[in-house]
Amino acid sequence: MRLKRLGATLFYALALPVVLIAVWFLATRSGTNGFTPEPVKLVQTFFQTWIGPAFLEDVVPSLTRLGLGLVGAIVVGILLGLVIGMSRFLRDLLEPLLEFFRAIPPPVLIPVLMLLMGIGDVMKVAVIVIGCMWPILLNTIDGVRATDPVLRETARSYGIGGLARVRYLILPAAAPRIMTGVRQSLSVGLILVVISEMFAAVSGLGYQIVVFQSTFKIPQMWSGIVLLGIIGLLLALVFQRVEHVVLRWYHGLREVENGGTR
Amino acid sequence: MTATVAAQENAAAALPSRARAPHRRRRSTALRWRRVLLGAAGIVGFLLLWEIASRTGLVNPQYLPPPTVVFGELFRQLTTATFWTAVRQTMTSWAVGLAIVAVSGTVLGFLIGLSRFLKRFTASTIEFLRPIPSVALVPLAVLVFGIKPESAILLIVYAGFWQMLIQVLYGVSDVDPVAESTARTYGLGRWARIRYVVWPSALPYIVTGLRLSATIALVLAITAELVIGVPGIGSQIVLAQNGARVPTVYALALATGVLGLLVNFALRLVETRLLSWHSSIRSEVV
């Protein structure tokens, strides 16, 4: 019985990908279409292109920039969000301004920051920090503001103030919203690292992919697309794990609440 | 997993506006004035700091011209035909891309969401394709379409489609089982159930999906213009940058921010129009 269910799960997980790959295989068998490579050749190219020195030269710098930028954005976003969210005055003062900055499409930052900081790594990391900060910042502000008033009053009656208040009341209350902000910023970060490298770089994934495309190395170009896809997928999986751990209590709470009302 | 993620996103997106609405109405007008004045003060203060930083040479004014210069350039841009052509081109890509996303996402979302088999059958593929960043398709777009607007539309559709699809899928499965059984008991047919039970339940999610993809669509329209050179505001920024017309770069960057605000505003309007019944029901119950 359990074996049967496992079989069904496997079938559903693999059936469509297998069909799609088969279609792809058959469609490219003639080998006349210059734009789409054959699956087997793509896998070969993938390993030839990215495993080895290219991994250190192009993939690692891109991932480092992305990592630094995201950490920066998360730290700055949460800290500023807590400060602004906890003060009514700051909230009212800054909210329209922040909404405007958020509305600027993040890629526009690249030409602007190139003017201010040149085309080095500092610019690329700064682009990611600034571009990814808004969703985290604004979600943190909203999360802080939406703290349950009963909990807030209770904390006040018990004389919980200062850092303890932030640590035990405000941060947990805002955590689900903060995680929503972080999830939104992940995809923005990946976009920004790639296009900042397409714009101005001598190394990195975005740069390499553009080089492949402009020299018509089509299978290599596709392998770059695949690699970006894998990175995006891994990023999403890592985030899912982190979110699961950070918000374990929250999901549990929601389950209990939903179970209770239904 | 997908469902819970979408649910949170949805709950998070819906929460502030709904939770705040009745509260805000009760607030006195004095408080609202305070908000408006403080908000204006924040903007003026920021511009003042910027002006001082640039005028005193704290930041090299060659790279950060003062706002008076930038806004002068922005107003000059507003009188040129080039600017408005660029805006039209950007917004055309945006609108076409978003329309394709809205229709395909909704139709496929209903198709897949209404069938348990299709939902399980496609889940792994959707989960795999969704996180692929659409900028990965930039080289492909260049090869196939070059600098035609189709390049921008390809990126917009890829990025927006998953956002939309996931929301619709979640909305379709969020139908209240009691409503569904009631409809069945009253002998409503399949189409009638879709029209009167599933559609209204899914509508809030569809609108949320539309709002999320509208923002993404604008980002990608401008990305395509910046990186590929599709004509529009983004390519104007690159031209200004290459020509070292620094104030123009800033002025156009501000203009994209205004476009972003307008897009947000328009979608909020659509949301309140389409969902007025929904919020009103909610606030009565609460």
**Under the CATH scheme, which class of chain A?**
Mainly Alpha
Order of helices and strands of chain A: HHHHHHHHHHH
Strand pairing plus helix content of chain A: what structural class? mainly alpha
Which spans of chain A of ≥5 residues are poorly predicted at pLDDT below 50? none
N/C terminus separation of chain B: 29 Å
The description of the largest β-sheet of chain A is: none
DSSP helix count of chain A? 11
The figure for the number of domains of chain A is 1
CATH class of chain B: Mainly Alpha
Largest interface: A-B, 65 and 68 residues
Write the layout of secondary structure elements.
The complex is a heterodimer of chains A (about 260) and B (about 290).
Chain A: H1 2-27, H2 39-50, H3 53-86, H4 88-103, H5 109-117, H6 121-145, H7 149-157, H8 162-199, H9 205-214, H10 218-246, H11 248-261
Chain B: H1 2-26, H2 29-55, H3 67-78, H4 81-113, H5 116-129, H6 138-145, H7 149-173, H8 177-185, H9 190-227, H10 233-242, H11 246-285
Helix pairs in contact in B: 1-7, 3-11, 4-7, 4-9, 4-10, 6-7, 7-9, 9-10, 9-11, 10-11
In short:
The complex is a heterodimer of chains A (262) and B (286). Chain A is mainly α and 262 residues long.
Describe the protein's architecture and organization.
The complex is a heterodimer of chains A (262) and B (286). Chain A is mainly α. Chain A has one domain (55-261): MetI-like fold (Orthogonal Bundle). In chain A, 85% of the residues lie in helices and 0% in strands. Chain A contains eleven helices and no strands. In chain A, helix 3 crosses helix 8 (162-199) and helix 8 packs antiparallel against helix 10 (218-246). The radius of gyration of chain A is 23 Å and the shape is flat. The two termini of chain A are 31 Å apart. The relative contact order of chain A is 0.11. Residues 1-21 of chain B have low confidence and may be disordered. Chain B has helices at residues 2-26, 29-55, 67-78, 81-113, 116-129, 138-145, 149-173, 177-185, 190-227, 233-242, 246-285. Chain B has a single domain, classed as MetI-like fold, CATH 1.10.3720.10. The radius of gyration of chain B is 23 Å and the shape is globular. Chain B is an all-alpha fold and 286 residues long. In chain B, helix 6 (138-145) crosses helix 7.
